[in-house]
Amino acid sequence: MKNVANARFAIKNWDEKPYSEGPELPKMTRAAVTKTFTGDLAGDGQVEYLMMYRADASATFVGLERIVGTLAGKTGSFVLQRTGVFENGAAKESYFVIAGSGTGELRGLRGEGASAVGHGMEHPFTLTYEFEQ
Questions:
Q1: I need a labelling partner for 62 at 20 to 30 A (CA). Which of 17, 29, 43, 45 fits?
Q2: Element (H, E) at 66
Q3: Structural domain of residue 78, as residue ranges?
Q4: Which residues fall within 8 angstroms of residue 108, CB to CB, at 6 or more apart?
Q5: Considering its fold, how many domains does the chain have in total?
Q6: Residue 122 exposure: Cα atoms within 13 Å on the Cβ side
């Protein structure tokens, strides 16, 4: 049976640095980001994003995020794989729980979600999830 967790996350730190750029080459950066989640998912997240910026300031990104906390009363951790684009001031992304990444009471967690958020430090987060039987 699928469940839906509704939460919010606040970005606590965003540390982004270029790791590959040059004349007529798209800039590539790595960002280490820390977050705090509240709601049906409560805890802390750490994500590493890799981003490629185009000349029009749009970007494509991928990331892995470990979340440690409580999901609907169950404690543990899991890892999300995130992919998305940043265009016209909004980040649109999809994410899913990586199979086998759940620990503690979150072992066997499977789930996915998508979002579209603008600039700011606090955003909604939704995860449709279930546990493997």
A1: 43
A2: strand 59-71
A3: 3-131
A4: 102, 131, 132, 133
A5: 1
A6: 5
